[in-house]
């Protein structure tokens, strides 16, 4: 079974495009935001994690919180952690001490028998998973040096760790091991703007113990080096719990429970006709086994990550929908453009003052509404990455699947309550029917240019 985005059924009913163009750009303050985009990628997640402001604090009973105080109630924390893995927000995952303004401990030797000294390459707010492949463009002098070093010493590998969303120079304690598979020298073609284009495969996870040269973070004259312990995820895990008969039986039970939870989620997604939903075929071919092969759980973990990205993009498009309609009307009325003449991009200064204000307000609204979704998705993947063994990963993934099912169940209940109240009188029924008719007409019109991944038996192929 091969993982692909076709495992997701994405109905882009909220996307309005400029004729054949798929995206337009509006810039302000030297930054560019993509509008009208329905492409699947991590680029938006990277932009959001980098550029959005401080994390909003939610209430005690929210699924995601930022906790700033250092006073903990151990008993309360224990109960919350057992019920909700992300109850402490960013503090729910493990972080190394910050390297900002820090100095090395002067101990260059290894402090653990099973550890190694490895280069560290922090790559923002993206969480990578074992058995995935990635291409990096290398341009910074310190990372040019890093690639030269790993080529010269023959190791051809380094650690990638997620950066803290709000603290500079602080990295997740669990990262992944990138192994270099192919490298192309492109300095001549790019006027030395980019030195290398490199292909990598993630072969395992790394537990980071300490940063050996934290002062390099400030000086930027070389790359960071860490002491870490590698867990090879390219083969099936030889965990003590899994190797015993009790471990095998326990894993089989957890694997079955995850498949059942995933099937329940798919059914309610289709019942509510969610804009982003899994195909039914994906539930029948769900990968839940140990290791990172084609039947391994990491395939499903990446599938869940892409689902979160697709849902984020759908919400982004929904927030932009009203602005897109006004922008098209402005271009047609004020500029006299026809549908075929609409541009693929327009500068911020070319907008009317009213539209400029709307762009700025849209930026604020997206920061408020989307950043918690980006952060929660990222922390979810990091929490799964930290799991000690296959059983713990199964339990975590099932927890997040069941949490999404509960959210949709609540949505279904509220929809039933409001639809029932609107049918109380003849006038309410007429208005409700009128709204449904108008909504259906809009969906039919907006779905014409969209791409629909059909519910086929080979949805993963």
UniProtKB/TrEMBL annotation:
Keywords, sorted A to Z: Signal
- SUPFAM superfamilies with a match to the protein in the record: PUA domain-like
Residue segments, region Disordered: 414-461
Endoplasmic reticulum recorded as keyword: no
Q: Quick check: keyword Signal in the entry?
A: yes
Give the domain of life: Eukaryota
Signal sequence, start to end? 1-24
- Return the Basic and acidic residues bias intervals: 431-445
Checking PANTHER family in the record gives:
ATP-DEPENDENT PROTEASE LA (LON) DOMAIN PROTEIN
Q: What is this protein called?
A: Lon N-terminal domain-containing protein
């Amino acid at each position: 079974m091969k993982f692909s985005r076709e495992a997701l059924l994405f109905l882009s009913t909220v996307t309005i495009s400029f004729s054949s163009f798929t995206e337009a750009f509006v810039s302000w303050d030297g930054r560019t935001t993509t509008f009208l985009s329905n492409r699947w990628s991590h680029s938006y997640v990277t932009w959001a994690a980098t550029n959005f402001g401080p994390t909003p604090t939610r209430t005690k009973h929210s699924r995601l919180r930022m906790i700033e105080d250092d006073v903990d109630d151990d008993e309360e924390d224990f109960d919350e952690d057992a019920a909700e893995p992300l109850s402490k927000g960013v503090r729910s995952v493990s972080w190394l001490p910050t390297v900002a303004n820090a100095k090395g401990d002067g101990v260059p030797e290894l402090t653990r028998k099973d550890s190694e000294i490895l280069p560290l390459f922090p790559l923002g707010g993206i969480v990578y998973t074992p058995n995935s492949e990635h291409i990096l463009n290398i341009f910074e002098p310190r990372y040019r040096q890093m690639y030269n070093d790993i080529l010269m010493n023959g190791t051809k590998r380094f650690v990638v760790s997620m950066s803290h969303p709000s603290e500079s120079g602080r990295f997740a304690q669990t990262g992944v091991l990138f192994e270099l598979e192919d490298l192309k020298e492109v300095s001549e073609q790019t006027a030395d703007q980019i030195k290398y284009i490199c292909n990598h495969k993630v072969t395992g996870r790394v537990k980071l113990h300490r940063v050996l040269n934290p002062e390099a973070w400030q000086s930027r004259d070389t790359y960071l080096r860490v002491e870490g312990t590698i867990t090879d995820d390219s083969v099936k895990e030889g965990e003590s719990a899994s190797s015993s008969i009790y471990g095998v039986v326990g894993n089989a039970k957890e694997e079955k429970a995850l498949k059942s939870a995933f099937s329940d989620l798919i059914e309610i997604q289709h019942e509510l006709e969610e804009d982003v939903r899994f195909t039914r075929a994906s539930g029948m071919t769900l990968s839940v086994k140990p290791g990172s092969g084609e039947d391994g759980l990491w395939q499903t973990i990446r599938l869940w990550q892409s689902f979160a990205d697709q849902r984020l993009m759908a919400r982004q498009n929904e927030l932009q929908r009203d602005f897109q309609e006004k922008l098209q009307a402005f271009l047609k009325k004020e500029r006299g453009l026809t549908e075929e003449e609409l541009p693929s991009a327009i500068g911020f200064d070319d907008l009317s003052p009213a539209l400029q204000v709307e762009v700025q307000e849209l930026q604020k609204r997206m920061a408020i509404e989307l950043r918690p979704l980006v952060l929660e998705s990222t922390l979810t993947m990091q929490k799964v990455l930290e799991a000690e063994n296959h059983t713990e990963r199964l339990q975590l993934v099932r927890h997040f699947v069941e949490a999404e099912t509960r959210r949709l169940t609540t949505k279904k209940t509220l929809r039933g309550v409001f639809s029932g109240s609107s049918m109380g009188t003849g006038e309410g029924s007429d208005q409700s029917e009128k709204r449904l008719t108008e909504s259906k007409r809009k969906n039919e019109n907006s779905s014409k240019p969209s791409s629909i991944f059909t519910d086929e038996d080979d949805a993963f192929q």
